[in-house]
Amino acid sequence: MHCPNCGKKCSNTQTACPSCETVFATSEQLAEMVVLRGNLSEMDANMTVSLLSSYKIPAYKTSHKGAAINIYLGISQYGIDVKVPQSMYEQADEILKAEPIEPLDDNWWENKEPESDAEDNENS
Ligand SMILES: [Zn+2]
């Protein structure tokens, strides 16, 4: 099998990825995965997975349903859903509430500071 989050090849006897520490879901858990947090940036999604993994909760990154649009805008790093088994949803939610990671606003890019553009303008 391959790690669902980083793609590293792992043996079937491993319960967590040695590379990114993702905890692997059992086949029963895989059948009941629900979206815990939607439309996260790559960084926030990784933080969420890492945090939940430290509590031995399987958390898998998947593409948000609007992510295809973001890819065309060249911002494919945004639009990631993090899924957990439904049976662990409440526990995972409590963990994230204790260490909140804010979901992105749908129009986040309109409010984003154009830092690199501003530097270019100063030079010209
Ligand atoms: Zn991994």
Quick synopsis:
With 124 residues, the chain is of the alpha+beta class. It has 6 helices and 3 strands. The protein has a 3-stranded antiparallel sheet with strand order 1-3-2.
3D architecture notes:
It is a single chain. The protein has helices at 27-30, 42-53, 67-72, 89-98, 108-111, 115-123, and strands at 33-41, 60-63, 78-85. The protein is α+β, with helices and mostly antiparallel strands and 124 residues long. It has a domain at 27-103: 2-Layer Sandwich (Alpha-Beta Plaits). A 3-stranded antiparallel sheet has the order 1-3-2. The model has no long low-confidence stretch (mean pLDDT 81). The protein binds zinc ion. Zinc ion binds next to loops. Zinc ion is lined by residues 3, 5-6, 8, 17, 19-20, 22.
Task: Give descriptors for this structure.
Alpha-Beta Plaits, 124 residues, 3 strands, 36% helix, binds zinc ion, three-stranded antiparallel sheet, 6 helices, alpha+beta
SSE inventory with pairings:
Blueprint: H1 27-30, E1 33-41, H2 42-53, E2 60-63, H3 67-72, E3 78-85, H4 89-98, H5 108-111, H6 115-123
Antiparallel strand pairs: 1-3, 2-3
Zinc ion is lined by residues 3, 5-6, 8, 17, 19-20, 22.
